[in-house]
Amino acid sequence: MAHLVLTVVGDDRAGLVSALADTVTAHGGNWERSELAELAGVFAGIVLVSVPDEHLTGLADALDGMAGLLRVTAHPGAQPQAPASTQDLTVTVLGNDRPGIVRDVTSAIAANSLSIDSFRSRTLEAPMAGGTLFEATAEVRIHSDADAGVLTAALERLAGEIQVDLTIG
Fold first, then answer.
1. Which residues form the ACT domain (predicted)?
2. What is the mean pLDDT of each run of 10 residues along the chain (169 residues)?
């Protein structure tokens, strides 16, 4: 069984997810996980699929054939491995929007040699104060030999420096 990570981009319109799912299913594939969104009128996402080895070439060709609807790029995925002993940590940041927040937060995480499993962000209007708020949530995987307290302290220092609210759970 092969695993493919598909990146998909196209002009947003009805039926894109259905068309992609039909193509995967028609080639014996299984849709395992995805993150899909409309961003500024563009549909974009990433999808993990598994497909029997004997159908891999047919699926890849069919995905290439979707170019009029979606631009799909297939990346070979690694075979899933047994998870190591880890702890998951959720980091949420909320503050006035400004350039560099994502860089600062992700740099603090990377400086501790930790992996980000998921990162979501958005901007929203500040209803009472006016202006724009930035909100981000990162799911971070901490291996059993790492100290979550070190990351927590680093992020708390950073939150004070860049003046954002930080929640770690």
1. 90-169
2. 96 96 97 96 97 96 93 87 75 94 94 90 87 94 83 91 91
